[in-house]
Amino acid sequence: MPPGSRKVAITGVALADCGRVDDTTPYALHAQAARRALADAGLDRSLVDGLASAGTGTLAPVEISEYLGLRPTWVDSTSVGGSTWEVMAAHAADAIAAGHANAVLLVYGSTARADIRAGRRTGTLSFGARGPLQFEVPYGHTLIAKYAMAARRHMIEHGTTIEQLAQIAVQARANAALNPEAMFRDPITVDDVLSGPMIADPFTKLHCCIRSDGGAAVLLAAEEYVRDCRTAPVWVLGTGEYVSHVSMSEWPDFTVSPAAVSGRLAFERAGVRPDEIELAQIYDAFTYMTLVTLEDLGFCAKGEGGAFVEKGRLKVEGGDLPVNTDGGGLSAQHPGMRGLFLLVEAVRQLRGEAGARQVRRPDGSAPGLAVASGTGGWFCSSGTVVLGR
User: What is the value of pTM for the model shown?
Assistant: First the structure.
């Protein structure tokens, strides 16, 4: 088969134990997720010749490979925050298509919540104060404050209201109520969101993602392995990645996220339009991330995100574009760098394996097209993956 001509499918996905997981290690969560993803695919681990990992130790893919008993001939340690996994999926798909690897495992595990509970780390993990960050860190400009400032800019320029942003949290929780694996499932209202403790104006607590433990794994494989898999393939149709800025002073427009570029590339390469997408998994460390990413992926025009998210549009039940169908980082789980969980949920939905939260077409069938879009840093990077049955 000529180089670059092989189709690439996601053949296995899985979550490790998520939520409150006090008596384990990040490495054990990696192993648990990896075993479950391989079992989901029905492929033997001896076929895995590629591994991608980030967020653990100083030599992440080397350490994780050793822990899992793998000796890959292709590795990726790209670390660009929450978008890491969509970017890694793009790299893995390119490598498989080119014949540089046959089966690549993306795997992640974190005990972010348990570490704070046990005093092994603090709640405010610094990104450091060297390089460009030295001009911001002394002034106390935290990660949350950066997102809050961007949200306020959108509110000023486009008239977006805090009630519209709160709707995103409310609808995420409604989706989480359908997910038995979600960490928080009790319904919330707009008033609940608005009346919570202020974290960084305009964000109250429920505008912000939860903190959990957990892990996930995704196995990508060349098309010739699909016939040996236990599950139906979900094909990687198109990908895009983009790096915007790290210094807030170098961000040209606080109301435009890097998904505006990564999304356009992914849709062009997939040969599909945003209006053909049937569900979206979007990184949601904060409500504003969901709103602005919806705009930048082309689901609505710039400045219309506030109106777009109203009236239950993002819900599994009754929504015309279900978003973060598992409850997202706002309600389901968020152990840090959550982008891999977006891919897991998108695949489960396309396979029709999402249980009570399953999105269905009018004829009752599972959807055929989905997008997963991750964001890293403070809108510093983006990776977008278009998937289809």
Answer: 0.96
